Amino acid sequence: MKSTHPLVALDGSNVSAAWAIVTASEGKVYIGSTPNGTLFQYDPAVDKMRAMANQFLPIPLSGRL
């Protein structure tokens, strides 16, 4: 990682811990956080971190199992 990126959830709160970190085949890193369940994506190619989703946000019906 080239720089530090604070993990700030979609609701603006700070994240206290990462509970899972996975590197995908395309090289992007996905981080699941606690306590609010925000999913983050880190792209090392451009050194960017973004909050992607939150377990408490509504899921469209087409995305449900």
In short:
The mean pLDDT is 76. This protein has strands at residues 17-23, 29-34, 38-43, 48-54. It is 0% helix and 40% strand.
Structure notes:
It contains no helices and four strands. It has a four-stranded antiparallel sheet with strand order 1-2-3-4, with no helix packed on it. It is 0% helix and 40% strand.
Write the layout of secondary structure elements.
Layout: E1 17-23, E2 29-34, E3 38-43, E4 48-54
Antiparallel strand pairs: 1-2, 2-3, 3-4
Helix content: under 10%
Shape: globular
Question: Could you give the order of strands across the largest sheet?
Answer: 1-2-3-4
Mean model confidence by pLDDT = 76
Strands, count: 4
Q: Helix/strand/pairing class, anyone?
A: mainly beta
Main β-sheet description: 4 strands, antiparallel
Strand content: 35-45%
Task: Identify low-pLDDT runs.
Answer: none
Radius of gyration: 12 Å
Number of helices: 0
**Cα separation of the termini:** 35 Å
* SSE series: EEEE
List keywords for this structure.
4-stranded antiparallel sheet, single chain, 4 strands, mainly beta
